[in-house]
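Q: Convert this sequence to structure tokens.
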Amino acid sequence: MTKDVIALTQKMPDPLTVLAGLLSGGPDKLVGTAGEDAVVQLCDAEGRPLVSVEAPVLVQVEGEAERLLGATPPPVPFWWTEARATTGVAEAERLAGTFSARLASLSGGSAWPPEAARSLAVVETDGVSVAPTPAAAQPAVDVLTDKVAVIIQDRPVVAMTAWLADAFRAAANAELGLQIVTNPGATLSPAVRNSLPGWPSRWVVQDERDGYYDGLSGAVLRFQNGLFAPIEGPGATPADARTPLAATFQEVTDTGERQLAVSFRTVHPADDRLVLGGALESVWRELTGEPPAGWGTAEPANLPWSLRGLTDLAHDRAPDPTWLVVVGSPARPGLATVRINRTTAGIEEDITLAFGYGPDEDLPLDALPRAAEVLATRHHLQSMLVQLRKARRDLAVPPRFEGPGVPLAFVLGAEEVREMPGDRARNTPLSEPPVQLGPKTRPALYYPLPGDPSDLSGWQDFERLMRHLKGVTP
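A:
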């Protein structure tokens, strides 16, 4: 298994500090670079990487080290430097630990996990070699087949780090699936869950009883024919594999924690004066009373919230799409993923947002219509769906069954209402009529839905509404 070791330091590691870290294997250890020189590597005698070190990241957002590592960092701002050891080489793991321990000692701070970074002594690596790396592999990839790239993670929260984001892109460009293997105690960040593509990509969880299972579906898996795939159960047929569910996946305890999930799309006319991110900030303020705390192109989210900074980044990357993660303050767990695309319709923002609540915390349900109206009247809302889920307050995705969300409301933007023939948008089969948002001459429509987490009939009403809006006869 690969080993990630992270130095959390008060000061940016200067060149001499990095050099001291790179001498963890002695003065004759080969050093290489990758990723357009953004990654420094300690290599074996054949030039193959033992340890890959990412460029330090300045984190200016409270709570990210606690959320992703369970670690106590220096006060913000602090520097986050990741070192990743090559799979299955004990000396490489010790090298990564010593590198991070030296950075923490010289730059003031600590290393995570603490047990991996206890020694500053030179690690003896003479004669240690690494298996050849496939040409298409990234530093984060542990196994590469003709079907999938496999990544083995030993972190408490598998986050969308720069490493993992590179692996996602490389797998997509090579038309491969991405399979992430973790121990049973790990969770996924919502940013990873929202970005994980479909088959054959999956989250693979190691399990004492069943070997491996899919952390999102519970299907028992085996590594076969070059990838982790579901096994066939007794009585399987070509049409029904009857894959068993892992017993661990089905062990669910209702803690009373909930999540309010909001997904929406806005479509803005293309304009050089357009400021992006305002729709997300408006919803965040309506539902929490404060703006987002930070954002970034990977986790940890390292930049303080800034509409101008976000807009400038998306503008510089256009016409290529921009993917972002946005986080809230530690007091109110919140996380959003944002994808910005330039299309023939204009500038589209696709946003998936969730807030976590404890069993004794009130949900801001009364604020939902206000948030929808702000989107509809100020931010060119196309559509919006609000759901309530029985899920963890901290938003981490566990390898356990959590169940689907139940829809609370659906919103159709003013332009979509206008384009719908006749009064179809207003005369629906639902028991409650839609609520008009915005000017009467050009309204958006807010459709209330049941939303009881113990009653899945809300999905039936939602499906009826969708069929009706599309003009599909029941």
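The CA atoms of residues 239 and 460 lie 26 Å apart.
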